[in-house]
Amino acid sequence: METRADVVIVSVGLRGIPLARSLRRDGLSVALVDVTSEVGHWDESDWEGLFGCFVPDKGAQMDHGELGVDFVLRDLGYREQPGGLAIWAPDGPIQMRAQDSGEMFHRKQMDPATLNWKSETIQNTSQWGKSTFKTNWLGHFGFWFGTTSFDDHPDTWGRRPPLPLADGFHFGLPSVSLLAPALQELAREGVRVYSPAKLVDLSFHGRLVDGIEIASERSGVVSGHRFVWMLTSEESYRCASRVGEGLFPSGPLESQWCWLRYRGKWADANTVAALPRHLVWIQDLGLPWTHANCFVTQKHVSGIVDCFCLVPSPQRIERSYVLDVGRQVAAVIWDRVPGATVEWLKWPTEVLVPLEEVGPPRFPVFEPRQQQKLNRANFRNVAYCNPETWRRYDWAHQLEQTRSVQRDLLAWWLKELVRRGEASHKSRGEASSPRKGSEPS
Questions:
Q1: Does residue 434 surpass a pLDDT of 50?
Q2: Which SS3 state, helix, strand or coil, does residue 127 take?
Q3: Statement: residue 304 has pLDDT above 70
Q4: Are the beta carbons of 402 and 385 closer than 8 angstroms?
Q5: How would you write 191-210 as a 3-class SS string?
Q6: 250 with 371: CB under 8 angstroms?
Q7: Is a pLDDT exceeding 70 seen at residue 60?
Q8: Angle, in degrees to the nearest 10, between helices 17-25 and 395-432
Q9: The pLDDT of residue 5
Q10: Mean pLDDT of the chain
Q11: Is cis: bond before 196, omega within 30 of 0?
Q12: 157 in Cβ contact with 131 (< 8 Å)
C-alpha cells in the first residue's frame, strides 16, 4: 500500500466524491476511504434523498465546476422540474416558477416576497419575516425544508439560511448505481480509492492524526498530511468504536428525527399523470410538518413512486408505527386525488432488516441543544464535513460546505509547496557543500 497522501477523505455514499476529484485536479495526491458498506443495510435509493438542488438561472449561475452545478447536472444526472418547486397545501397546489404564480399568490393572500427568493437576492430576508405565518408560511418552509436541525413547529424564521425557492428546482431519479462508477472514475484520475473498506483504528502524532488503519483489498495504514472526516459521530462509532472514541470522545450524537423512504407503485399511473414528479404534500400548515402531515413524493418510471416522511428516530424501527404512517399517507393521496391508489412495494429499510443491521439514519435531523454538546476532537489536521456540520441537505448547501473545506486545504497546500521547495533547496545545498575538514575541489 502506498503510504502518505496529501489529503485523506473518509466518506460514505457520494459525500466525498466531488471534493476528492476537485483536489486531485488541483494537483494534490488524494486517498478516499469509502465505508458505505459498513454503516448499515441500505440501497442507493436511500442515499439519493428527496431534497434536490436549487440552481440559479443561467444569467446568475455560479459555476464551481466539480464543486457546483456541474456535479449536480452531469454526475448526478439531475433534471429541472418544469414550474419549479411544487407544494400541495391545504388550499391547493402551488409552483414557484409557474407562469401564474404571482396571480396565484394574490388569490391565496400569500406574501409574494418569496417569489423573489433567488440565489442572487436572498442575502437579506429580515424584512420578509414581518408578515403573519398565515400569509408567509411558504417563507417558513424555505427555512425548514431539508434542515439538519429540528424545530417542533414551522415557526423557524431566520434560524438558518433559507432555500432560494424561486430558483430552478432540480432533482434526480434513483439509478442502479451512482457510487460505483464515481469511484471508478476517481481511480482513473489518480485518486487512491479504498472501497469497500472497514475502519480499524487511528494513529496519532501529538495533536495530529497520522494515519487510518483499514481492512480492505489493500489492508494497512492510509497515512496523510490532512484528513477530511465526512462521517457523522454515529456513523463513526458504527464503523469502529475506537475510531469514534478518538474523534468524538463524548460519544455519538443521536438524531431526534430522520427521514424514512417508502417505495410504492400507482395502481393506475394515469390518475396521477398531471402531478409534478417531485411534490411536497402538507395537510395542516399549523401542525408540525412531520409524520403524515407533511411528506414528499417522487414519481419515477413505470409508475414507481418514492415517498419520504420525517419521523422520530426512535420510532423508525417500530413496524406498527411505520406501517401506520404509510397507510395515512396513502389515504391523504386518495383524498386529494380520487382514484389515486398507491400500493406499497417496499416498506422503509428500518423495518425490513434486523435491528443490528439497520445502522444510523441516512438523513438524521438533530435537536439543536444536543447538537451544541457534541465534542469533536480538535486535531490540527482534521476537517469535519458531514450532516452534523451542515445546516441543510440540499446539494447546493453540501457543495458550499465542501468548497469551504477545499479553500482551507488549498491554502495549506500552497504553504506546503513553499515549505517543500525550501526543504528541497536546502537539501540540495547541503549535499553540494564540502564536508567539514575536506578541501574544496
A1: no
A2: helix
A3: yes
A4: yes
A5: CEEECCCEEEEEEEECCEEE
A6: no
A7: no
A8: 40
A9: 96
A10: 88
A11: yes
A12: no
Cα dihedral: 432, 434, 436, 440 (round 10): 180
The three cell numbers locating residue 139: 417563507
At 395, the amino acid letter reads W
pLDDT of amino acid 310: 97
Number of Cβ atoms within 10 Å of the Cβ of 274:
8
Q: Name the pLDDT band for 177 (thresholds 50, 70, 90).
A: confident
Beta bridge mates, 55: 168
CA distances from 181 to 39, 79, 175, 176 (A): 20, 19, 11, 10
- What is the model's pLDDT at position 49? 86
In angstroms, the CA 84 to CA 166 distance is: 7
Chain position carrying cell 488549498: 410
CB 63, CB 396: distance < 8 Å: no
Sorting pLDDT into bands at 50, 70 and 90, what band is 61?
low
3-state SS class at 81: coil
User: Of 52, 53, 394, which is closest to residue 61 (Cα–Cα)?
Assistant: 53
Of the CATH numbers 2.60.40.10, 3.30.565.10, 1.20.1250.20, 3.50.50.60, which one belongs to the domain with range 4-49+175-254+365-416?
3.50.50.60
Helix axes 17-25 and 179-188, enclosed angle (nearest 10): 10
- 3 state SS of 351: helix
What stretches of 290-379 adopt beta strand conformation (E)? 294-299, 304-312, 342-346, 364-365
pLDDT band for position 70 (cuts 50, 70, 90):
confident
- Planar angle of CA 63, 66, 69, nearest 5 degrees: 40
Question: Comparing C-alpha atoms, which of 278, 294, 285 is closest to residue 138?
Answer: 285
Return the H-helix or E-strand segment holding 53.
Answer: strand 53-55
pLDDT, residue 355, reads 82
Q: How far apart are CA 119 and CA 169, in angstroms?
A: 12
